[in-house]
Amino acid sequence: MKKLFIILLCVGGSVFAQTTVKNIPAKRTTQRVVIDGKIDEAAWKDAAKFDELIEFRPTFGRKEAEGNQTEAYLMYDDEGIYFGGICHENNIDSVSRELTGRDGFGTNDYIGIIFDTYNDKLNAFEYFLTPLGEQWDSKMSSVQNSNNGGEDFAWNAVWKSKVILDKSGWAFEMFLPYSAIRFSKDKVQTWGINITRRRRKTEQQYTWNPVDMNVNGFLTQEGLWTGITDIKPPLRLQLFPYFSVYENHFPSTDPKVKSWSNQYSGGLDLKLGISQAFTLDATLIPDFGQVQSDNRVLNLTPFEVKFNEYRNFFTEGTELFNKGDFFYSRRIGGSPINQNEVYNNLKENEEVINNPTESKLINASKISGRTKSGLGIGILNAITKSQHAQIRNKETGEIREYETDPATNYSLVVLDQTLKNNSSVTFLNANVTRTGQAYDANVSSAMFSIFDKKNTYFVSGKTALSHQRFVDKNKLGYSHAFGLGKSSGRFNWQYNQELTDTKFNNNDLGYFTNNNFITHRGYVGYRYTTPKKFYNRLQYNLNLTYSTLFSPIGQIATKYQNSRIQTSIVTQTKKLVWIGLINDFMPKQNDFYEPRVEGKYFERGNSGLVGIFVEGNSAKKYYLNGEIFMRKYFNFYDLFAYDASINQTYRFNTKFSVNHQIGILPRKNGVGFSGNENGNVIFAKRDVKTFENILFLKYNFTNKMGLTFRTRHYNSRVTNKSYFNLGDNGLLSERSSVTGNYNRNVNYFNIDMVYTWQFAPGSFLNVVWKDAAFTNDNASLISYGENLRNSMNSDQNNNISLKVIYFIDYLTMKSWVKRSS
């Protein structure tokens, strides 16, 4: 929750339009440059120099202090771009540095350069270096009021760099081959450009072209790199062949089930530049066995848990595909659509002996890029093979198969046209086609985001149609969203309306919880971004929500769902500590989803929430983040709930750090769905105690080699105290008994230990150990300590794997062959 409020402080703008636009001339060199961190070659003397950097935050407009200035130079040749310089420091102890691995932020100072190669002020490429020589890079999008705004650090390019740290600061050099960036074929080009430097111990951040946080957008305030001449996009062909081996152990008393198993695999990832702007990414025989384990939980809600995506192919370069929030990549290779149906199709004396939990991905590919006229095109396609559960006859031993997921093709097409004034229009189509008698699905959407000339006011919207094709019928659904507001100035506001009818469903390739609603939201905010005596930044926020059903359900008379009023105050102190105070009030609400039966609803009473979060200064050796939110329901069941968490980190040195997170989520006298008996919807008054412990250790040997260890234990206990029948009026009537035991006690225990070595540019060796355990019983009254011991002593699924990925670049190979001959 706290991240939302911090983001609100970072976007939006001033009523004073940003008019400063600096220019830096393009300087071509023909001299040889060695990337060694020393800017002592003659070529650097003729390079273009970035003049004075201006403070971006906390105090906009100030120049860099004497002795801490940034000296930076830029030039190019036929092969790529050179960026180098010196980040001066009066005191070397003022440089914040930590080895964190590729694209790991940590608490590092950094220097970075940003290229808007089509000068559309909406899309850019970023390249960063830290004082210890670690690289970050990302694709950046500044389109506001859409879900793809921000930086995509999953995108990776291969480029060279070197840093030298000494008592006067740190010198750096980077070389960006043209294969690491996208641009047009024009003979003479002008790119948008900026450089930025951040000093973490003071949280001072500087940019070359001034960037006022009170102006909407970072790229709207870039400078210009002019006169770039005769550069040609090269043939971009990069191969990433891999080889992996897995050894798995799971103890079993069944003599027919092997305790040990192994697997060997090989495959290929490919990147091909099919034009100067577009890239084909493909993965053949993909292997995602080394990704981080999911944070699984006991789900007591009526909605599916949404998991993070850790598979590189689906996290890298997907900013176009995430437009409108219609794409949930975990659907591809996710749970079979009929995974649970097998249990409803068992014959007498049959049992399920194998039921796959995920579908096997055969291959996936995507094409993405943007033309010089600003048209972004994204095409993604993936194929999964059919999955079958195995059913055994207990008497004869005969085994038969039941199809739980047909062979499926997933496709996504996005067309995104950038317009003037930070605006854009977008079309998206998502399609899922299955073999056999299973249904197919399609979703199409049109979106727009329009800003005025002063980049102050905006209007945005999207409309979508869903189509599910069953054997005997078609199901058509409609949804739209509309918003307008003011995103510049100290005073900002926004209004949004979302409407979804009863038949809309985008769950086949998106994350979908419910339809049938009309929701109105309003936001008002006022902020102070000029540091004062007691704070660096301060913002007040007010959020309002009112939601009803789009269409009545059955005989239910009411359409009202819920409403909310929420206020918050967020500030950054002079000690660089974030503090936020939040409270909200929710009047009586009608929950149409908790009963899990159409035509029923549950009436919840008024409730109030108060909360506070504190985020410490991460540049310190030890820092702590914490939050606590408490909600009180004014019902007969007298629910009291709070969420409390602490996240603390201690850095022993630049190589070794320890992070510990603990979360406690108790629910006293909660009421929720428990089951169905004899046609009655059963609710229970219950206590729910949930604990989560995560320990993360990191040791980086060098800026190319590191070891991480992450262990997580999650325990949730449900103790039901009394039971009720849910009436047609949304109220509960006491029930004397139930047939089943609805208490729950669930544990998830995981270990992920990863050794990574980047032994050559773009090439990696990974060794991973994963350990997983799961227990589920009705002993809800045992303590957390007993649950932890039981999890440690339960059967563990251990997996050890080794994977080698080798980077092959066509241009590098061509150059090597030429030199050899």
Automatic annotation (TrEMBL):
Signal peptide range equals 1-17
Swiss-Prot/TrEMBL keywords: Signal
Q: Which residues form the DUF5916 domain?
A: 233-817
- Which Gene3D superfamilies does this chain map to? 2.60.40.1190
Q: Which Pfam families match?
A: DUF5916
Q: Which InterPro entries match?
A: DUF5916
Is Signal tagged as a keyword? yes
Signal is among the record's keywords: yes
Protein name in the entry: DUF5916 domain-containing protein
Q: Origin organism of this chain?
A: Lacihabitans soyangensis
